[in-house]
Amino acid sequence: MFLDTNDLRSDELFLKLERTSDADPEKGWVPAYHFKICLIENGAEAGKCSLRAGDNENLYYGGHIGYEVYEPFRGNHYAGKACLLLLGLAGKHGMKRLYITCNPDNYASRKTCEYAGCILEAVADLPEDNEMYQRGERKKCIYSINL
Question: Burial of 72 by CB count in 10 Å (0-12 exposed, 13-18 middle, 19+ buried)?
């Protein structure tokens, strides 16, 4: 199920596979890749990202791609560049459409979605039975991209 990820690199960064996680249907989770975002220049770890390689209703709200860039590395589009690399991996899995979501007030993440070529589809209310709703979140920006 999991594919080789050694080609996930650009002239500026590479994604180093940290681990994979199997599907957990009871929790509504699909298989996932978890990466460190590393700089080509010096190997520094600038952040992390993940690709959920599958599809279900939860991913409309939670997204197929997640990312975090550490404070000293912000402002360089590393999350957007990592997303672009993950789009290729998703395509190899036969995925046709991906969702990336964020909180409406997270403007940096919204810019990352746009940098990666995603289109804002909706600002959606979270269903009451969703884990994020139960943690206190109420809305998500739903960005999508066709592969």
Answer: exposed
Q: Which residues contact 122 (CB under 8 A, 6 or more apart)?
A: 141, 142
128 domain residue, yes or no: yes
Residue 69 has pLDDT above 90, yes or no: yes
Residue 8 lies in a domain: no
Q: What pLDDT is stored for residue 27 in this prediction?
A: 85
Which of 11, 77, 66 has its CA nearest to residue 33?
66
**Domain tally for the chain?**
1
Residue 94 lies inside a defined structural domain of this protein: yes
pTM of the model: 0.95
The Cα 94–Cα 96 span in angstroms is 6
CA distance 83 to 137: 24
Q: Which of 139, 87, 89, 138 is nearest to 112 (CA)?
A: 87
Which is nearest to 5 in space by CA: 96, 113, 92?
A: 92
Domain that includes residue 136, residue range: 13-146
Predicted pLDDT at 128:
95
Collapsing DSSP to helix, strand or coil, 2 comes out as: coil
